[in-house]
Design a protein that fits this description.
heterodimer; A: about 425 residues; alpha+beta; about 70% helix; B: alpha/beta; six-stranded parallel sheet
Chain lengths: ~425, ~220
């Protein structure tokens, strides 16, 4: 294979593409603004940890250590989420070990402490500098447009003391300075954003080994939950078949047996018994339909998720509004999950919430299906009190989705589910 | 014959009561759960209890547990257990206490009214009624290396009907042979299985089931 021409390879990399650079600078500026938030949080965490360490010297801080480390973890998780949005995903380490000694010897905690110090100092400095440079670039460049609005003495010092601004040429000079700031921003800001992110990308990721191990553990757990949910589902179906439908059909055979005996004895009795047998057979059919529908509602396969949800709303005793925006269909299993989550949530609302209205919002953006169920009931829904919420979480996580409950006492209750579409 | 019915499904409970009352049998009480059933047994002193296996609260084996408890309180109570499906473990649990005055049938057998009534009378009279499906399951579960292999196909048929709790005459009728032929088959079965022959139906069933149970355990 011939070696590629070195000039041809190098040329695009060397070319100074102003537009690409400007775009990169704008992105980097956005990252520095976002970074400012986490640097302030890191600074707060820094102060908290320092105060705890100081308190430890007097023996009273030991009790605060777990809380301080958890706080630090929360801040670090924010940074992980932020960095994951514009770079490779950073998967966090396992939770902070519960024991004091274990927590203090955890390498992940050590790295987080290191990140905290760097981010609270260097990171904060970079954010502030980046913002100042960008701010100066904008204000100086546009200076001739608004300098007359300033009080004369304030305007006169706007050229960083290089000259006194009294007239338009002086002001235009300031905008030339602004161009200088722009060049400086184009040169420095992208690198500054990368530099600010670098300690986080280095220190906040889990060990390369545990990284995968953790992901595997997560997948194993959700897979087990998926199988659990599946088994529970099969048990429910088995039960509704055995205790519902089968009993109806057994009743039919018993009544038919009784009717035959009655025919031999007194045919006039048979009519009434046959009538009961027929109604038992009809009930069996109705239950069979209900069981089949509970496995997979036909409207979901034949029509759409929106239609299925509308059907759900009409059978819900509480007035329920469906707000669906799903231009492209998702994988069948995802739609089925969304449907059952909505069904379970509406059942919960009917049973427990005393709500007067419920709203189901569902929309798809790119590769995720978002589902939100809100009611105006008395709130206080608790996932650990044996409600259907555990089932909803299981179903959701089985699809690698996320589930959140927000239900303050007094309401309103909001369930938020997000599922990868799988298509 | 005084009968108590324990069945949580209202339609089945009423259907069963209707059927039995139409046959001039005395259904003295019906119950929808194990507690109600045991209270009815205490209060009405029935001769026979018809009990569904799956009852509240967990719908698993509450009926079996209740039946065993009822027999503990009233050892002379005949119990006919009805089940939605064949579960050998249930049969074994019931038969652990001896097989007289005991029946275990699939629910749908009730629709064959003559056979159901004869099973009911057999159980009430001190005998046994085991569902053909339970017997078939026990027979297939025993491994081929048992002494059962020594039996001819006809003898296996006879053994299966014996296991259901049928008497010689009834077996003869089912197989369209004479009483004498059935007698001969049974003697041959007992000889091949190394069991002492006996005329009492429940002891024959016990022997058969114990033998099958044993074969199943050894396999």
């Amino acid at each position: 294979m011939p070696a590629p021409d070195p000039a041809a390879v190098r040329k695009p990399a060397r070319r100074w593409d102003v537009f690409a650079r400007a775009r990169a600078t704008l992105d980097a500026f956005e990252h520095l603004v976002g970074g400012l938030g986490t640097t302030v949080l890191a600074l707060v965490a820094f102060l908290l940890v320092a105060a705890t360490a100081l308190a430890c010297l007097f023996g009273v801080g030991v009790l605060l250590v777990p809380a301080a480390l958890r706080g630090l973890r929360a801040v670090a998780d924010r940074e992980r989420a932020r960095l994951s949005r514009w770079g490779p995903e950073i998967i966090g380490p396992e939770p902070v070990p519960p024991g004091l000694r274990a927590a203090l010897t955890d390498p992940a905690v050590h790295r987080e402490l290191g990140w905290m110090v760097t981010h609270a100092t260097l990171g904060l400095f970079l954010s502030l500098t980046g913002l100042t440079v960008s701010f100066s670039a904008v204000t100086n460049t546009t200076f001739p447009l608004w300098w007359r609005l300033l009080p004369p003495e304030e305007a006169s010092t706007s050229a960083m003391g290089l000259w006194t601004v009294r007239d338009l040429p002086g002001a235009l000079g300031v905008s030339l300075l602004g161009l200088g700031w722009i060049v400086l921003a184009l040169l420095l800001v992208p690198g500054m954003a990368r530099l600010q992110a670098w300690p986080g990308r280095r220190l906040l990721r889990a060990d390369p080994g545990t990284d995968l191990a953790l992901r595997v553990a997560q997948l194993t757990a959700t897979r087990a939950a998926a199988l659990d949910a599946h088994a529970a589902e099969l048990r429910r179906i088995e039960r509704s078949l055995h205790d519902g439908t089968q009993n109806r059909i057994v009743a039919v055979t018993i009544l038919l047996g009784a009717a035959r005996r009655a025919l031999a004895r007194d045919p006039s009795d048979a009519e009434a018994i046959l009538e009961r047998a027929q109604s038992a057979a009809e009930q069996a059919l109705a239950e069979l339909r209900a069981v089949a529908r509970s496995i997979l509602p036909p409207v979901l396969t034949d029509r759409s998720l929106a239609d299925a949800l509308t059907g759900l709303a009409t059978t819900c005793p509480i007035p329920c509004r469906i707000d669906a925006d799903i231009p492209v269909r998702c994988a069948a299993s995802v739609e089925a999950t969304a449907y059952f989550v909505a069904a379970e949530a509406l059942t919960n609302i009917t049973r427990h919430s005393h709500a007067r209205h419920a709203t189901v919002t569902v929309h798809r953006d790119a590769d995720r299906l978002h589902l939100q169920i809100t009611d105006d009931g008395h709130g206080g829904a608790d996932e650990h009190s044996g409600s259907g919420l555990v089932g909803i979480r299981r179903r959701t996580e089985a699809h690698d989705g996320t589930f959140m409950v927000n239900s303050p006492p007094g309401g309103p209750t909001t369930l938020t589910v997000s599922l990868p579409c799988g298509s | 014959m005084r009968i108590v019915i324990a069945e949580d499904d209202p339609l089945l409970r009423e259907g069963l009561a209707l059927l039995l009352r139409a046959e001039s049998l005395d259904v003295v009480a019906t119950a929808a759960d194990p507690d109600g059933f045991l209270a009815a047994v205490d209060a009405h002193r029935p001769d026979v209890a018809i009990v569904d296996v799956r009852m509240p609260p967990t719908h698993t084996d509450e009926g079996i547990v209740a039946a065993v408890e009822a027999r503990r309180r009233r050892p002379d109570l005949a119990v006919l257990v009805l089940s939605a499906y064949v579960e050998q473990a249930f049969a074994t649990e019931l038969l652990a206490q001896g097989s007289s005055r005991l029946g275990y049938l699939l629910k749908e057998r009730v629709g064959r009214v003559e056979e159901f009534l004869s099973a009911l009378h057999r159980v009430a009279g001190g005998g046994t009624a085991i569902d053909p499906d339970v017997v078939a399951q026990l027979l297939t579960r025993s491994r081929p290396d048992t002494r059962l292999d020594r039996l001819s196909p006809r003898e296996r048929d006879v053994l299966a009907l014996m296991a259901e709790g049928l008497g010689n005459t009834a077996i003869a009728e089912r197989l369209f042979v004479t009483d004498g032929a059935v007698h001969k088959h049974i003697r041959s079965i007992f000889a091949k299985l190394d069991l002492a022959p006996t005329d009492r139906a429940d002891r024959r069933v016990t022997a058969v089931l114990h033998y099958l149970e044993d074969a199943h355990r050894r396999a």
